[in-house]
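lol forgot to send this yesterday, sorry. C-alpha cells for the thing we talked abt
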C-alpha cells in the first residue's frame, strides 16, 4: 500500500496550512453500505492531484462531500483551516461537473459566468471584471454572447470552468473533465490545467491526462484510499492497478527496442 500514515502527515505541517484536510471521513446512502470509509486526505495549496479508481469507488461522493453538498456520517473536512458545513456557500472551492449541461443554464455564456460573482454580492463593475478575466483565461471570450446549449462539447467544458474561475476559488474539483472531448478540445484542456494557478483535484478515467497534469495521484477503491504517491509510482504499478480494476497508462509501460 502506497500511502503515508496520518501520523506522518501530521508532522509535516499544521492543518491550517493545507487547502483540504479530510479526517476519518465516512459516508453512507440510506439503502447502501458505506460508500466512503475512514478516508484521510490532505492537499497542500498549489498541488495538482489526480483522483483515480474504478466506477463506484466513491470519487464523486467524495467531491460532493468536500463541497458541503453531502453530509458525512462520520469524520471531518477542513477547507483552508475552517470546517466544511453542509449547505454553506464557500467560494474558496469550486466543482466542475462531468456534464457541463449541469452547470450551464442561462441564456448566454456571459450570464452563466456572471451568475456566481453576482450571487457573491459583488458590484456590477467587479462582476464584469471577473467575467472578462475568466473568459479570457479559458480562451472563450469570443463565445460571450452565444447560447450555451448551442456550443460544442469542448466549448461547454471551458465555459463551465470559466463559471467557476469567476468566483476566484483557491481549490477546484474537476469531475471527469475530459469526458466526451475530441482530441483537440482535450489537448486545449490539458494545456489549461498545466498552467492553472489553483489547487486542483482531478477525478478522471483519462489516466494519460493525469500523467501529464498531476504531480501526485490518489487511488480510491471501495470507499478507501489504497495508494497515494507520484503518478509514476502508483499508476506504473501494474499489479496494483489491475487489482483495482485499472490499467497502466500506455506511457508508463516500458517499451523495448
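and heres what i got for the seq, position by position
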Amino acid at each position: 500500500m502506497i500511502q503515508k500514515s496520518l501520523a506522518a502527515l501530521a508532522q509535516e505541517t499544521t492543518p491550517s496550512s493545507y487547502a483540504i484536510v479530510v479526517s476519518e471521513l465516512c459516508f453512507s446512502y440510506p439503502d447502501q453500505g458505506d460508500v466512503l470509509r475512514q478516508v484521510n486526505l490532505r492537499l497542500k495549496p498549489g498541488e495538482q492531484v489526480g483522483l483515480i479508481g474504478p466506477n463506484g469507488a466513491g470519487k464523486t461522493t467524495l467531491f460532493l462531500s468536500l463541497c458541503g453538498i453531502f453530509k458525512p456520517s462520520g469524520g471531518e473536512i477542513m477547507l483552508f483551516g475552517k470546517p466544511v458545513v453542509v449547505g454553506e456557500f464557500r467560494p474558496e472551492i469550486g466543482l466542475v461537473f462531468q456534464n457541463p449541461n449541469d452547470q450551464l443554464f442561462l441564456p448566454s455564456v456571459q450570464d452563466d459566468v456572471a451568475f456566481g460573482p453576482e450571487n457573491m454580492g459583488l458590484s456590477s463593475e467587479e462582476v464584469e471584471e471577473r467575467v472578462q478575466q475568466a473568459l479570457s483565461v479559458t480562451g472563450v471570450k469570443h463565445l460571450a454572447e452565444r447560447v450555451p446549449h448551442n456550443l460544442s462539447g469542448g466549448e461547454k467544458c471551458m465555459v463551465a470552468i470559466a463559471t467557476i474561475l469567476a468566483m476566484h476559488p483557491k481549490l477546484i474539483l474537476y469531475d471527469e473533465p475530459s469526458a466526451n472531448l475530441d482530441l483537440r478540445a482535450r489537448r486545449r484542456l490539458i494545456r489549461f490545467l498545466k498552467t492553472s494557478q489553483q489547487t486542483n483535484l482531478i477525478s478522471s478515467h483519462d489516466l494519460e491526462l493525469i500523467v501529464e497534469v498531476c504531480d501526485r495521484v490518489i487511488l480510491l477503491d471501495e470507499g478507501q484510499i489504497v495508494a497515494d504517491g507520484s503518478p509514476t509510482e502508483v499508476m506504473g504499478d501494474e499489479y496494483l492497478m489491475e487489482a483495482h480494476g485499472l490499467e497502466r497508462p500506455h506511457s508508463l509501460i516500458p517499451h523495448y527496442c
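Confidence is low (pLDDT under 50) at residues 5-11. anyway ping me if u want another try
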